[in-house]
Amino acid sequence: MKISTSMKAVAIAGLAALALTSCAANEAAPETTTDEGNASAFSGTLVGVGASSMGAAQEAWAAGFQTANPDVTVNYDPQGSGAGRETLQAGGSDFAGSDRAFKVEEIAEGPFELCAPDSGILQLPLYVSPIAIIFNLDGIEHVNMDADTIAKVFRGDITKWNDPVITAQNEGVELPDLDITPVHRSDESGTTENFVEYLSAAAGSVWTDEVSGDWPTGLPVAGEAAQGTSGVVEAVTGGNGTIGYADASRAGDLGTIAVKVGSDYVAYSPEAAAAVVDASPLASESEARTAGDLAIVLDRSTDASGVYPIVLVAYSITCETFNDAAVGELVKGYLTYVASEEGQKTAQAAAGNAPISSELRSKVTAALDLIS
Predict the structure, then answer these.
(1) CA atoms lying within 13 Å on the CB side of residue 126
(2) E strand or H helix at 128, and its extent?
(3) N or C: which end of the chain has fewer CB within 10 A?
(4) Is 211 buried (19+), middle (13-18) or exposed (0-12) by CB count in 10 A?
(5) For the stretch 167-198, what's the b/e string if a residue is b when 16 or more beta carbons lie within 10 angstroms of its beta carbon?
(6) What is the pTM of this model?
(7) Strand, helix or coil at 57?
(8) pLDDT per residue over 13-33, tens digit each?
(9) In the chain, what are the domains?
(10) Is 47 left (phi over 0), alpha (psi -120 to 50) or beta?
(11) Angle (nearest 5°) at CA 93 between 87 and 96
């Protein structure tokens, strides 16, 4: 992925603008300390850009880290995963948040402007959350669907809520004779890529479109497009018969789909999301990635009991070796807090995500030790 000169200028301008605005989380930060135990260890401004799905968690992490380190400001701009990766490459942010990891070929294309020459990058899975399939039907809170049904709904092959394929899976639920309006992201999105990756893996005979962060064109029903996680939630909330997908922390009072896994229908939960992550291998076991690249290959087609397979793993991505070692130390301090048990619990309270396991934390800590 080559970054143009104009893109670099835009990214750096964005960095300057963000630096002028203190994160709102400064105003009501909880009492906390970092694992370092030194409240005055760090100073400076950190800028992150990326996934809107982890926006609430980033606010909570910034609040906790800034309370322990009053001379630090952490700004996170939730422009989306694609923007986060591009801005990091252009040198416009110190870390990116992304709902998918960089692919090996993208890393090879580079460059990463804040990283030292020949530096690898760290890709740390620090935010784990189920992706909820949300809908808006008066008086109905939960609907069961298997993978093929979900794929047909979002392709537009099933267009009514009382279609026999849906009613057969929802005995006793009075589903209305109402058009289904699918809502998808209009922007390139890691949430989209995770969602369609599940459809491709679990309903491959139905969902034959390419797995991508861009919603496929040419489907039988185009549906409604909305910008960002907030846009999808607003569109589903404002409609009747609407259905969409979003980070589960944003589901609110909307109805949600329980997904068929094996012989059971599984509702989303942090525990069910964490279960599929721990059961999935690292990409580095099968690809040429560096030691600090902890990209995970999720098992979307599992039939294991109690596992919710539509999971979003958002990565904090940064340099292994920085051109400016002082920036590296500040990034390392912040991400060490994010990965800590305290940081993960803080995010869960704010965003409802699944805290990473102690096993994964050990891998993340080893990766962070590579920063210089």
Answers:
(1) 36
(2) strand 121-135
(3) C
(4) middle
(5) eebbeebeeeeeebbbbbbbbbbbbbbbbbbb
(6) 0.74
(7) helix
(8) 444 344 433 333 343 333 344
(9) 5-128+316-368 (3.40.190.10), 131-274 (3.40.190.10)
(10) beta
(11) 70
